[in-house]
């Protein structure tokens, strides 16, 4: 069964990698927003198109009155969510 174990470990690594990529996209978008990047820039538009669907229900979850803190909380939580969920699913697959 060592062959099966390697396949499961590979699948777990892929799942963890995808979760890390999703978190990286969220983190990059968060930085672009906080640092007030030019929103008409193609790179910004590209990252925004990837990050907003990945943020799921998190945008608008917190309203602290400070826009920067709202962005950090909402998109930061989305990034942490992807890391936690992908890690959990990867562990299940690796069993």
Terminal Cα span:
13 Å
Mean of all residue-level pLDDT scores:
92
Supply the helix-strand structural class.
mainly alpha
Q: Can you summarize the main beta sheet?
A: none
H/E series: HHH
Outline, from the CA principal axes?
elongated
Low-pLDDT windows of residues: none
Helical percent range?
A: over 70%
> For the CA atoms, what is the radius of gyration?
16 Å
Question: Can you describe what's shown?
Answer:
The structure is a single chain. This protein is mainly α. The protein is 78% helix and 0% strand. It has helices at residues 2-34, 42-54, 67-94. α1 packs across α2 and α1 (2-34) packs antiparallel against α3 (67-94). It is elongated, with a radius of gyration of 16 Å.
Identify the notable features of this structure and list them briefly.
95 residues, mainly alpha, 3 helices, elongated
Helix/strand layout:
Elements: H1 2-34, H2 42-54, H3 67-94
Helix pairs in contact: 1-2, 1-3
In short:
The chain is built from 3 helices and no strands. 78% of the residues lie in helices and 0% in strands. The mean pLDDT is 92.
């Amino acid at each position: 069964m060592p062959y099966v174990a390697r396949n499961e470990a590979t699948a777990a690594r892929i799942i963890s990698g995808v979760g890390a990529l999703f978190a990286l996209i969220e983190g990059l978008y968060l930085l672009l927003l906080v640092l007030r990047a030019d929103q008409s820039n193609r790179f910004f538009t590209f990252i925004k198109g990837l990050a907003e669907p990945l943020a799921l229900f998190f945008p608008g979850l917190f309203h602290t009155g400070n826009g920067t803190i709202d962005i950090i909380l909402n998109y930061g939580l989305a990034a942490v969510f992807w890391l936690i969920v992908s890690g959990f699913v990867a562990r299940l697959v690796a069993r």
